[in-house]
């Protein structure tokens, strides 16, 4: 599971997440899909649960308006599907925050989580996609099937004016040949083939390796500048 030319590095600081040599209050990870149904939420849950297993505090925010977290909560509580009153729930060390909470980034950061993961969902028309651009860690999830590869191409074409050098493309179940084919189609270096992970809540060796490769990274901007963007001071 080689990440290729990735140069990012994690440095711990008294048990807190760090970016480069500087500790930060919260590392923000945004996960966006090139289309619907490519595994964005599955990947976000996998990351959140593994980070919680490493004794970090983690929030997973449903930044997509899908209300899928309501279904997850009902399955977790073993009740028939219905809209439950609480705006968040807890599974194995992760706070799942529903889109109905309507939280701003400043509110999330003020809670002091080590990691905040934003499940952006399908990027197209998303009201939350700026969250993806400003996150410390930006992860794109796309399908490697031949008929879905145009979605990946369209995604990167639409980001032509963005600095995508630190974004990572994750393709579930992709073969080495699929990765090579996509590398010829889009101008990105960091493409990662995700292994088969049927249950994102379960602990397994493949998940540990994935998270070590993807999280966390050295950020390209100062954390203080990033936070000012969210709270509208710059």
Automatic annotation (TrEMBL):
Output the Gene3D superfamilies linked to this UniProt entry. Answer: P-loop containing nucleotide triphosphate hydrolases (3.40.50.300)
Name of the protein in its database record? CobQ/CobB/MinD/ParA nucleotide binding domain-containing protein
Provenance organism:
Paenibacillus aquistagni
């Amino acid at each position: 599971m080689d990440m290729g030319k990735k140069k990012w590095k994690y440095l711990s600081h008294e048990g807190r997440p760090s970016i480069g040599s500087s500790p930060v209050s919260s590392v923000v990870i945004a996960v966006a899909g090139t289309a619907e149904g490519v595994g964005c939420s599955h990947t976000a849950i996998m990351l959140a649960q593994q980070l919680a297993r490493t004794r970090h505090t983690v929030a997973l925010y449903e930044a997509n308006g899908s209300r899928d977290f309501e279904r997850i909560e009902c399955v977790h509580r073993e009740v028939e599907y219905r809209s439950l009153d609480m705006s968040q729930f807890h599974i194995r060390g992760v706070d799942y925050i529903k889109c109905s909470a309507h939280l701003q980034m400043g509110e999330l950061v003020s809670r002091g989580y080590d990691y905040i993961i934003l499940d952006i969902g399908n990027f197209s028309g998303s009201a939350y996609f700026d969250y993806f651009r400003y996150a410390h860690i930006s992860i794109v999830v796309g399908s490697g099937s031949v008929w879905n590869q145009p979605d990946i191409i369209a995604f990167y074409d639409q980001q032509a004016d963005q600095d995508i050098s630190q974004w990572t493309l994750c393709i579930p179940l992709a073969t080495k040949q699929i990765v090579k084919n996509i590398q010829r189609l889009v101008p990105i270096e960091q493409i990662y083939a995700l292994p088969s992970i049927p249950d994102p809540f379960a602990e397994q060796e493949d998940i540990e390796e994935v998270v070590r490769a993807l999280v966390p990274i050295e950020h390209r901007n100062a954390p203080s500048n990033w936070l000012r963007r969210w709270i509208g001071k710059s």
